[in-house]
DUF2282 domain-containing protein
Amino acid sequence: MKKSNLAVTAAVTSLLAIAATTLTTTHAVAADKEKCYGVAKAGKNDCATKTSSCAGTSKEDFQKDAFIMVPSGLCDRLAGGSTSSS
């Protein structure tokens, strides 16, 4: 194998390894998050609510059915935060 082919193969292999590590790390981080209802500012919610169809569409600050994703355990320490929408 030529040196240039070897270098390209090594570079591609490195990029694939980095991508696989990033995907694995992202999944692990997402697993350590929870939905926190009642703390999002208007238009800053992460996903759909009972009264709006997509992220960023909550109508008022601290809307009870709007949530943001926070690290696990943090929601209970936020004023007005709840892990359920009711």
Notes: The chain has a mean pLDDT of 78.
